[in-house]
Amino acid sequence: MEAMLQPVADFFGPSWTAIWTLLKIVAIIAPLMICVAYLTLAERKVIGYMQVRIGPNRVGPKGLLQPIADGMKLLFKEIIVPSGASKGLFILGPILAIAPSLAAWAVVPFDDGLVLADVNAGLLFLLAITSMEVYGVIVAGWASNSKYPFLGSMRAAAQMVSYEVSMGFALICVLLISASLNLTDIVMSQNEGRFADMGLGVLSWNWIPLFPMFVVYVISGIAETNRAPFDVVEGEAEVVAGHMVEYSGMTFALFFLAEYANMILVSILTSILFLGGWLSPVGFLPDGFHWLAVKTAFILLLFLWARATFPRFRYDHIMRLGWKVFIPVTLVWLFVVTVWMMSPLSIWS
Amino acid sequence: MLENYFPVLMFMLVGLGFGLAPVILGRLLAPYRPDSEKNSPYECGFEAFEDARMKFDVRYYLIAILFILFDLEIAFLFPWATVFQEFIAAGEIAWFVFGSVMVFLAILVIGYIVEWKNGALDWE
């Protein structure tokens, strides 16, 4: 591949590195956007079938063109900027929401060696960039200068930072047993141990020794992306649509894209950190990207399933779960893992 | 070493561009006919009757401060967690490293218990 492109590289000269990187970035964002579009359709279909309906089925065969129709409609809708809003910040809000949810994909590995930036601080970068997501919501809520967006963004900010703490402790535990911040190393470290040698890789992945962390991470991921049953941010009975009330057209579409891109990001990270990434569950089947896709799709199905199953949490219950249940659980398991590593029974070395 | 981070920087810029492009496109393609009723803040059909940037509950500040404490704690644990296995492999010093981090965590837990007892985590 590199040799084939050598003449092109010579033609562009020193700017070739930038162009080649840009092409790789497009090769990540384009499939991601298709996934986002079809995740919205999948969500409506899955929830439809769970409620004994058939979901959207009018646009295109079996409703398959529905997301494209939705996108087109939003593109041709007026972008309304309220007269009381801070204009610059109002436009900046959705951009700040989508930018980190895309930038995080720079360090996500899709297969052994198939990663855009193979940096040695990948996990730290992810922790930092996912923390940036809260700014889009706060800026949008503040800039709208309207009551519902303001209240919605206050709630969102408090909820997102609360669950970030327990997610952070879960990451520490993963870090302890894989001893690397590089996501490729984290996946490969799950391929070691007695069960992996026996060809039962599924039992050597992080989700078994870190089971409480795995559960906390998935639930915190749902809360962090403001999805049902933690979607008080846009609880329509209380604050209409939260920080998105005043947004229309493409500015609204950006919030929507960011939310679904974040869902896919949290799912793929759960697969990488706890479910062995692209590793095959059994020895006789080959590893590869398809396993990562299957695991990510499964976690995404859990997101949709939770939305179809549970009623919305009350806000004080959400805060209690985050601060009084998840933090003690993560602290205790951090202690258990540390002692386990020090003891002769340690399975990591 | 640092050139590994060049794609990350570029991805951030592309992300910002990806956010900006649809906004510009929407402004160019979609109709733009502002009027004072349409542009007034949404309040269920009523005229908005005070500034929206009002006083809000002090507990939001409290949560933010607690978050900073815990997040700093996590940031401090990151380097320790990365090298802990090497210390275990090295032997003697492992218990010292273990002990110092446990003291560090114990201080956090004491603070956490105090917060809990004083009702800082209640949201009633």
Automatic annotation (TrEMBL), chain A:
Pfam families: NADHdh. GO terms for molecular function: NADH dehydrogenase activity; oxidoreductase activity, acting on NAD(P)H, quinone or similar compound as acceptor; quinone binding. It comes from the Bacteria. Its EC number is 7.1.1.-. It is a multi-pass membrane protein. Coiled coil: none annotated. GO terms for cellular component: plasma membrane. Its main location: membrane. InterPro entries: NADH_UbQ_OxRdtase_su1/FPO (IPR001694), NADH_UbQ_OxRdtase_su1_CS (IPR018086). It is found in: Cell inner membrane; Cell membrane; Membrane. One of its GO terms (biological process) is aerobic respiration. It catalyses: a quinone + NADH + 5 H(+)(in) = a quinol + NAD(+) + 4 H(+)(out). It is an enzyme of class 7 (translocase). The chain crosses the membrane at residues 20-41, 89-110, 122-144, 165-184, 204-223, 252-276, 288-309, 321-342. Keywords: Cell inner membrane, Cell membrane, Membrane, NAD, Oxidoreductase, Quinone, Translocase, Transmembrane, Transmembrane helix, Ubiquinone. NCBIfam families: PRK06076.1-2, PRK06076.1-3. Belongs to the complex I subunit 1 family. NDH-1 is composed of 14 different subunits. Subunits NuoA, H, J, K, L, M, N constitute the membrane sector of the complex. This is NADH-quinone oxidoreductase subunit H. It comes from Thauera aminoaromatica. The lineage of its organism: Bacteria, Pseudomonadati, Pseudomonadota, Betaproteobacteria, Rhodocyclales.
Automatic annotation (TrEMBL), chain B:
The chain crosses the membrane at residues 6-30, 60-81, 93-114. It is found in: Cell inner membrane; Cell membrane; Membrane. It is a multi-pass membrane protein. GO terms for molecular function: NADH dehydrogenase (quinone) (non-electrogenic) activity; NADH dehydrogenase (ubiquinone) activity; quinone binding. The keyword Membrane applies. It is an enzyme of class 7 (translocase). Coiled coil: none annotated. Keywords: Cell inner membrane, Cell membrane, Membrane, NAD, Quinone, Translocase, Transmembrane, Transmembrane helix, Transport, Ubiquinone. One of its GO terms (cellular component) is NADH dehydrogenase complex. Pfam families: Oxidored_q4. Its EC number is 7.1.1.-. It comes from the Bacteria. It catalyses: a quinone + NADH + 5 H(+)(in) = a quinol + NAD(+) + 4 H(+)(out). NDH-1 shuttles electrons from NADH, via FMN and iron-sulfur (Fe-S) centers, to quinones in the respiratory chain. The immediate electron acceptor for the enzyme in this species is believed to be ubiquinone. Couples the redox reaction to proton translocation (for every two electrons transferred, four hydrogen ions are translocated across the cytoplasmic membrane), and thus conserves the redox energy in a proton gradient. Belongs to the complex I subunit 3 family. NDH-1 is composed of 14 different subunits. Subunits NuoA, H, J, K, L, M, N constitute the membrane sector of the complex. This is NADH-quinone oxidoreductase subunit A. The gene is nuoA.
